[in-house]
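Bug report (template v2)

What were you trying to do?
Predict the complex of my protein with S-adenosylmethionine.

What happened?
Run completed; filing so the output is reviewed.

Input:
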Amino acid sequence: MKMSLLTNKWYTKEKRIEQLESHVVKTRTAKFGFTSYAESEKIQRVNRHFNTIASRYDMMNTVLSFGIHYLWKQKAVGLMNIKPGDKVLDVCGGTGDMAGMSAAKAGKRGLSIVYDINWKMIGQGRKKKLKDVSFTQGDAECICFPDNSFDAVSIGFGIRNVTHLETGFREIFRVLKKGGTICCLEFSRPENLFFRHLYDIYSFRIMPVLGKLFTGSAEAYTAFPESIRAFPLPDELSRILKDIGFRKIQVKKLTNGIAVIHRARK
Ligand SMILES: C[S@@+](CC[C@H](N)C(=O)[O-])C[C@H]1O[C@@H](n2cnc3c(N)ncnc32)[C@H](O)[C@@H]1O
């Protein structure tokens, strides 16, 4: 096995700090994957990424995760304890998987909204004709809904893409009703070292090849595993949520920590 296969690409704590808003604002740079962009450019870079892969996004998620992403999403939505009549927002909601699951719980009297900046992702979601789900285009950094509007807000595999991470969470805090629940589902670092090595090999050797094959872009599926390795670890994310004002923060690690749910209350 070549040494390069075993190179540790997970960022150290000092490097992970580069994802935080204070660093982005100070340096006027923001990372997407391991590449730095001007702070103002990241959003365009992220949009280009999702424009490239939107039509194959759902299929790629299923192929790359062997279908497990649906179980992770179901788990996260389940933890929001949505009741009939609740108003639920899915920030960075993409093609609407989580909003669809939330709508099934909120029912006809409730509200389930996908909120996403990318028109193509929204378009793909609309094609799915999800029952009782509506779509709004907008930026997670300035959510176009009034304060205290929602009983629950989910954000699945989205916060990594937001240029000013804390602003995204502050906006979620603002639109949540007092006592409302946030569920953030995000990728993270597997706990077991051997599994982590296998995951690294899979991420950097196989994912880009499958990305090229199915979407025509190896680059998109290189930036994707890179962005996971640069992202704050679960306890660091808990700290961010706490500093914003969230309480009762609970962390649930899934599939050896590949995915992590943060649930908290406003
Ligand atoms: C990896 S996808 C996740 C989609 C969906 N939540 C899921 O789990 O399948 C990330 C989504 O975040 C959206 N996004 C990225 N930056 C955003 C921003 N600043 N505001 C709103 N949406 C954003 C992208 O357009 C994309 O649809």
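What did the reviewer find?
DSSP finds eleven helices and nine strands in the chain. The pocket of S-adenosylmethionine is lined by residues 43, 46, 50, 92-94, 97-98, 116-118, 121, 139-141, 156-158, 161-162 (CB under 6 Å).
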